[in-house]
Write a structure and sequence with these properties.
Blueprint: H1 11-14, E1 23-27, E2 35-43, E3 47-52, E4 58-62, E5 64-66, E6 69-72, E7 84-85
Antiparallel strand pairs: 1-2, 2-3, 3-4, 5-6, 6-7
Length: 89
């Protein structure tokens, strides 16, 4: 019996990922009016390069995946570090 009617879904299709050219943002935990906006300028399988739109600084950081979306910590890992998520544009 031929199984042409079976639809296969992989987890890669369901993950929201960083894409070059998109703008993403993060809000400060302490001050909701403090917002960082980044442009995704480069992308590899495990890293993303973000450019801060306001200061023009670039950050090459590792990408993590949880709950079906990619995220990263552009300023490093500390207790109040802003989290940049691929789904937040």
């Amino acid at each position: 019996m031929k199984r042409d009617d079976v639809f296969v879904t992989t987890t890669e299709n369901l993950i929201q990922s960083f894409q070059v050219g998109h703008l993403v943002s993060a809000t400060s935990v302490c001050d909701h009016e403090c917002v960082w906006t980044f442009e995704v300028v480069a992308r590899t399988a495990k890293f993303v390069t973000l450019r801060n739109v306001r200061t023009d600084e670039t950050y090459r950081v590792g990408v993590k995946v949880s709950d079906g979306e990619e995220w990263t910590l552009p300023f490093g890992s500390y207790s109040m570090a802003p989290i940049v998520r691929a789904a937040v544009r």
